Amino acid sequence: MGFINLDLDAIEGYVANHLKLFISMVVGLVVFVGIIALSVFFIVVRGAEQTMVPDVQGMELTNALLELQVKELYPRIQLRYTQTSADKGLILEQNPMPGTIVKAGRRIRLVVSQGALVNTVENYLGLNIDEVRMDLQTLFASDGTIAPPLLTLKEPLMYINSPEPPGTILQQKPEPGAGISSPTVLELVVSLGPEDSLIRLPDFIGLSPEDALELIGVSGIDFLFTLRAANEGDTPGTVVSQVPAGNSMIAVDTRVRFTIAAPALSSGNTVFGLLRYEMAKTPYPMSLRLDAQLPSGDRRRLLAAEYSGGELTVPYELPLGTVLILSMHNIEIYRETVIRPVETLSLDQL
């Protein structure tokens, strides 16, 4: 039986050498991990990047928030009432001030105007209804919230004959000075003028459809439009006839008939036409509006007037594909799309 000779010195040397290598590797790994840990520590200690606070005073709240978002800053909003409703929704103050260097993620205090504090009903007696509408629109202009305005008009308004000029407010409910603590409906009685009162009819001859409709909205007259082919001497696309004649005295409920000479045919996509809509007759005029939604997405106001119903005819000159939107008291009642140019229709169809 043979014997294996073991060189114990060689074995001890081999183990010692590999043990040193193992220890060196462990020490190196600990040092590497330590370096990584120190790097992360110093990055955290250094903190977020610095940024300059933008000037958002006087901006609308939405635009101010976008400015802060670009700078990676966050708002802390405070609301404040002011002496006027004109600055409602605007930034009154900010802290830190513009130009201050801060760390990204900092909260910026914004003081936002809520407009004038309205807690009572104003005295609208004796004012014109158009002035009151404008005042309410300005006073309770939308600030982007879903909360309803504190004061809204009850539609339709009540009209009666009186010695006061047409449009004058005769009665209101709630009465002047009444408190407002929640959304309130304002009921108004408006003058139609004396029962036998006369007004001077403006001269519409030569006006474009756009100008004629604007003058109708201002004068408050009843109207009916027709189209015919242009005769020699006519200016196409303008009012060439009106009955009664311009500058004559007429009763306030007289329906004035206008004739427009159809323009020359063109190869473009502009359409000259006539919107027709039959409305129920009402005992007093009601707020009527016609808007045009253009193919570009823009919206144009064609007519805003008080109308007492019956056959409605409104001339227009608009791009093909425009959507006409008819509303009464801000409620849509009819719409149609401009789809055919004038050359495809007879004037009788228009």
Structural class by sheet pairing and helices: alpha+beta
Radius of gyration (CA) equals 38 Å
Mean pLDDT metric: 82
Largest β-sheet summary: 4 strands, mixed
CATH topology annotation of the largest domain: Trypsin Inhibitor V, Chain A
- Total number of strands: 20
Portion in beta strands: 35-45%
Number of domains: 3
Helical fraction: 10-25%
CATH class descriptor name of the largest domain: Alpha Beta
Low-confidence stretches: 142-146, 342-350
Order of helices and strands: HEHEEEEHEEEEEHEEEEEEEEEE
Give the overall form.
elongated
The CATH architecture of the largest domain:
2-Layer Sandwich
Q: Helix count?
A: 4
Show the helix and strand layout.
Elements: H1 8-46, E1 50-52, H2 61-70, E2 74-82, E3 91-95, E4 101-103, E5 107-116, H3 129-139, E6 151-153, E7 158-160, E8 169-173, E9 184-191, E10 198-200, H4 209-219, E11 222-229, E12 239-243, E13 249-251, E14 255-262, E15 270-279, E16 286-293, E17 299-307, E18 310-319, E19 323-328, E20 331-337
Parallel strand pairs: 2-5, 6-9, 7-9, 11-14
Antiparallel strand pairs: 1-4, 3-5, 8-9, 10-13, 12-14, 15-18, 16-17, 16-19, 19-20
Description:
By secondary structure, the chain is α+β, with helices and mostly antiparallel strands. It has three domains: 67 residues, Trypsin Inhibitor V, Chain A; 63 residues, no CATH class; 147 residues, 2-Layer Sandwich (Trypsin Inhibitor V, Chain A). 20% of the residues lie in helices and 36% in strands. Strands 6, 7, 8 and 9 form a four-stranded mixed beta sheet that branches. β19 and β20 form a beta hairpin. It starts with 7 loop residues before the first helix and ends in a 13-residue tail after the last strand.
